[in-house]
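[C-ALPHA CELLS]
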Amino acid sequence: MSGAAEQTSDAVLVARTARGDRAALRLLFMRHHTRVFRFVMRQTGSETMADEIANEVFLEVWRQAPRFEARSQVSTWLLGIARFKALSALRKRRESALDEGQAEAIADSADTPEVATMKDDKAAALRSFVNALSEEHRTVVDLAYYHGKSVTEIGEILSVPVATVKTRMFYARKKLGEALQAAGYDRGWP
C-alpha cells in the first residue's frame, strides 16, 4: 500500500466510493474486513455466515455510500450495517430451522473436550460468560471491549440512546461479576 493510500481517510474513501471508485471500496475492504468479520463471527458463531455477511456489508457500502452523512466514524457505520445484517441472517436461520424442523440437527459444542479444557482458563471462562449474556448485553460488551467503541458510538451502532447503552453495560458487568464469582473466580486478574 502506498503512503498516500495509507493517509487517505475512511470518509474520503466513502466519498470516492459514492462516485463509483472501486479502488476506494477495495481499500475500505482491506482496512475493515477483518474487524467486520470478527464482529459478525461473535454475533453469529458461524464462520460461514460471518464471511458471507462481511462481504454483504461491503456490497451495501457500495450501494449506500452516496447516503453516508459522516455523522459517525466509518468503522461505526460499517459495524452498524454488519449488526443489522447479522440479526437478519440469524432471524432467517431460526425461522428456517423452525419451519423445517431441523432444530435438533444443530450441533451442541458445549460438551467438546476443547471447550471443557478452555473453561479452566479464566479468560476462556469469561468469554463463555459473555456468550451466555442476553444478545443486548453481549453486543454492548463486544462493541466496548473487543472493538473499543465509545458509549456514544455504541448507541449509534445499536440505534439506542446513550443512557440505554450505559444501563445495558452496568447490568452486563454485574452479571459477569456474579457468574465469575459463582464459578469460583475472584474479581482480580488472573
Remarks:
- The chain has ten helices and no strands.
- The two ends are 40 Å apart (CA to CA).
